[in-house]
Amino acid sequence: MTSERVTMVAIAQAAGVSVPTVSRVLNGRDGVSPRTRERVEGLLRERGYRARHAQHSALIDVVFPEITCAWETEHIRGIEAAASAAGVGIVVNTLWGGGDATGQLLRRLRGGRTDGVILAAQSGTDAMRTALSSLNVPVVALDPASPVSAEIPTVDAANWAGGRSATRHLLGLGHRRIAMIAGAPNLRCSRTRLDGYRAALDEGGVAYRPDLVEHGNFDFGSALAAGLRLLDRADRPTAIFASCDRMALGVYEAARRRRIPIPERLSVVGFDDLPGASWASPPLTTVRQPLRDMGGYAAGALLSLVRGEPLTTPYVEMTTSLVIRESTAPPH
Amino acid sequence: MTSERVTMVAIAQAAGVSVPTVSRVLNGRDGVSPRTRERVEGLLRERGYRARHAQHSALIDVVFPEITCAWETEHIRGIEAAASAAGVGIVVNTLWGGGDATGQLLRRLRGGRTDGVILAAQSGTDAMRTALSSLNVPVVALDPASPVSAEIPTVDAANWAGGRSATRHLLGLGHRRIAMIAGAPNLRCSRTRLDGYRAALDEGGVAYRPDLVEHGNFDFGSALAAGLRLLDRADRPTAIFASCDRMALGVYEAARRRRIPIPERLSVVGFDDLPGASWASPPLTTVRQPLRDMGGYAAGALLSLVRGEPLTTPYVEMTTSLVIRESTAPPH
DNA sequence: CTGAAAGCGCTTACAG
DNA sequence: CTGAAAGCGCTTACAG
């Protein structure tokens, strides 16, 4: 490793050809005889040639606040598939990981090493967003925590419709005392799902009762605590709609602790349809967000922005759908 | 977007300075007056300057066969944290995603756009591995499916010890009819965990019974089926050790279907300690693999290889540890 | 703190 | 199919 960097001239000399010929081989252009090409390729390998300058990166950056569960994973899968099909790689960044992710990303952008950025969840700090816009870098927001400036194309899920369909399903089964464990109230998706729940209740002629609404943090522990509070009430709800699958699992555990069988004595509905939803016992009825498709769509939109194509739809809301499994049943 | 690429000369002209000055600003070097720096930075932003050549990539590639569950996610988190702390970004690749990931990766490597590669799980096809070695690219294997050539530094988990400690735990609780649902037999980790199970049985003076060993695919469905077969036996086991957490959840579902309560009538132990293990009902007793640390270690090793430092330990096995939760109890 | 000059690694016409 | 030459975008001494 103390050796000098291998350059094209070194390869050319060793192969007894000119530098342009080596360049042609490297870039897979024709106009090189098979024999020459082979010899040069051999040398390239042997000496471990690595280009000094990258010319066009064919890379996009994805930034998450942090990676906590399958939610991010599903997005990554969708983005990776779409990007990879287009021949571009993805760089994944985490804002709260300790390193100076923002600085690195900006440096990469400045250095022309990446072509665009997908900002997932609440991931764009204001500082970062202004930096991005001043750099003229194509940006797409994926499932933003709060409304994003109109200039940034946004991909979202139909949260309102999802919250409504979950609640309608429970209503249709005959439930009347339906509790909800909502997500953090500062996130847009939490509020929207809660609105969907209220709308369904209204339509069903069931009065909205604020005391049946708990707030969690989209995590297991907060939902376990909220579930316990709900199940310990005298007028215990017969169904609980949790604002994400992980919180639904918290409700499962609360029910197990209170020896309340699901779905016989308690119906539970989640939101997301992460892979774990179907691995729960009983398999979880939940509102499916097409996370992977959302990621794929965001990547596609970003890539066309990178190509300089005008964006037709600046805001896309992708359909959610109820997946009925075994955690819901008519009230006992 | 039809505009010409913005070059440094354009910026220099607009700012009324020389090209070297712009270069200094771009690279954050000193020897530029604050006023000049500011003016140049403003222009850089305004015109959306993006470098034509990247010089040093500060990027590493991680390749997985595919991304299926939290297993990959945990590795990614560990790798991302370590890489990010060192100021380098990570590119995540998926081999079975449809796109030509191998080709892209190789192109990126050739183009000098990435500095090294982490091959996770069974992800290195032979073709890829030879290509990598002929390119002289630093490579580290993470949790390889099969023994890797001695030249590639490898990070692994103590699978044997893990399988043994899971089984010893059950033995210690008084179980004698302990079944195992092993992973796919062609994977090294599957065989090693099974060996650990056998070793513990031997030490405990309990005869190994091949009929109590089922083989799954590390997925939910195969474990559900295997669990059902096991639970439908006349001499039903009192405990089942599943070779990964996802398969343990399959056993949970099998037990639910047969109305066998966990842990009262059946103890279950998993392997991995993915986040979902503690979100199961009851929370799952499992063998913890330090997935994140393994990823971090692999990234660190790769980075020092990239720096040209000699590698001290070519093979590292990281400790596994039993995490006792609520899915295990003495047999009834 | 700044720029003219030389240089680097590579690519692009062009000529043969 | 190949190379001499010009050129590109950038960086690196060096001089002031």
From TrEMBL, chains A, B:
- Keyword Signal appears in the UniProt entry: no
InterPro entries on file = HTH_LacI (IPR000843), LacI/GalR-like_sensor (IPR046335), Lambda_DNA-bd_dom_sf (IPR010982), Peripla_BP_I (IPR028082)
Q: Does the keyword ATP-binding apply?
A: no
- State the CDD domains in the record: HTH_LacI (cd01392)
* Listed SUPFAM superfamilies: lambda repressor-like DNA-binding domains, Periplasmic binding protein-like I
In terms of domain of life, where is this protein from?
Bacteria
Keywords (A to Z) from UniProt: DNA-binding, Transcription, Transcription regulation
| Domain (HTH lacI-type): residue spans on this chain | 6-59
What is the protein's name according to its record?
A: LacI family transcriptional regulator
Q: Which organism encodes this protein?
A: Actinoplanes ianthinogenes
